Amino acid sequence: MEEKEIQEVETVETAETAEVVETETIVEEKPAKGRKASNPKGKGKRKIETVENAPQSEWKERVVQIRRVTKVVKGGKKLSFRAIVIVGNGKGQVGVGCAKASEVIIAIQKAIAEGRKNLISVPIFKTTIPHPIVGRSGAGSVMLRPASQGTGVIAGGAVRAVLELAGIENILSKSLGSKSPLNAANATLEALKELRTFNDVAKKRGLSLKEMLN
């Protein structure tokens, strides 16, 4: 009999303590009267909705290279960073930007701004380029050739970044000159500048498109 009484007392105590703990947690969750809650309901949801509904920019940036460069001045050496960034919308417009600054983030921002100033329009014919071409810039030389559907972008480094952000899906390329990313990117940009569509060539020759192709 004594053992049973002891067990009953223990169960009652544990139940009471559990009830006390539950009431305490409820009181902590509720804000005190006359005070504003630190995180009122709906505040976080509004922020999420504004982020989701914010319009996304069609421009894409890709950092190709970041290097630390030095400039010899009267007092010694001045350190800075150089950033090369490719800017494009994937719909036939692309540009290359190169800028220097004392900090990496500022150099990237300046390169993006310069790339958007130097945008060019690329004629795309059935997800590829209309004809083969070779572009040159300084010691860099890049050869571009059209490819059939399903080939993909056969390129590497800065050349691949320029072609992908321009919106070209199938192309063959080969870098024939300098391996510098800046020279390769500028050479690719020069090659894309010189591309001509069939309609442009037909107008210059004074022919219709069907007559020129036949």
Write the layout of secondary structure elements.
Blueprint (H helix, E strand, L loop, with lengths): L1 H28 L13 H11 L6 E14 L2 E13 L4 E9 L2 H14 L2 E2 L11 E5 L2 E7 L6 E2 L2 H10 L4 E5 L5 H13 L4 H8 L3 H5 L1
Parallel strand pairs: 7-8
Antiparallel strand pairs: 1-2, 2-3, 3-4, 5-6, 6-8
Helix pairs in contact: 4-5
> Quick one: how many beta strands?
8
Radius of gyration: 32 Å
Beta content comes to 25-35%
Rounded mean pLDDT score: 78
Major sheet details: 4 strands, antiparallel
What structural class do helix, strand and pairing data support? alpha+beta
Succession of helices and strands: HHEEEHEEEEHEHHH
Please give the count of helices: 7
Contiguous runs where pLDDT drops below 50 for at least 5 residues: 1-30, 44-52
The protein's oligomeric status is single chain
Distance between the termini: 112 Å
Name the CATH class of the domain at 60-198. Alpha Beta
